[in-house]
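In this supplementary section we document a worked example of the pipeline. Step one takes a protein sequence of length 242 as its only input; no multiple sequence alignment statistics are reported here. Step two produces a three-dimensional model, which step three serialises into structure tokens for compact storage. The input and output of this example are shown verbatim.
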Amino acid sequence: MDFERKVYIVTGSSSGMGRSCCMKLLEAKACVVGIDMNDGTIDNECYTHVKADILDEKKIEECVKDTAARFGHIDGLVNAAGVFANNKPFYELTTEEWNRVQSINTTGTFILSRAVSKEMIAQKKGKIVNISCIRSTIFKQNMADYAASKGAVASMTSAMALDLAPYNIQVNAVAPGFIYTGMTKASFDIPEVRAQSEALIPNGRLGMPEDIASVVLFLLSDMSDYVTGSMLFADGGYHLQK
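The serialised model returned by step three reads:
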């Protein structure tokens, strides 16, 4: 997998899976432009941080155009920015709470992908990787908002793949399972919760952000040129039992 001198945009780049994707790409000598609402957490000469809301269409379009102008091409996009469920049954959710999850997880992915795909169509090459979740197909109480948003990402991935296939652009998704991140740390740091969760996973352990980043790099590489419109489960085998 050759990433040297290639250019990637990664959202949610300041923490969790997004940050791990950035680090893996940088280790592979790629150039990375990270987008996050928070300050940058990566110090690398090949990394550029853009502090922005992924729902700010004007700022996102400017960022993408600036990246293409600076490097001459954009080889890939990783849509890793997202928020978790409000942890309520759907009938207790406010419309505002519902819309926030849908907007960030689904519309944010759409806005980034739309902007980047225009550059990729012109160069007739590119890779887009969306982060979905096992909760797009395996459900749990009090997660209707999150499941709906990640299910939409999974469906959108397939539809995007068809729209972009004529331009040699591959679009795929990763469905992480139980991953230990800043978002899940408070829960998984409770010994009983961690033990119960790991007991459900055939591989016997929680996933780490680096586990997801490795799968993303495969989907960004030329080794996945004949893979498009797919969602790859990265969950230690959890979905096999459901």
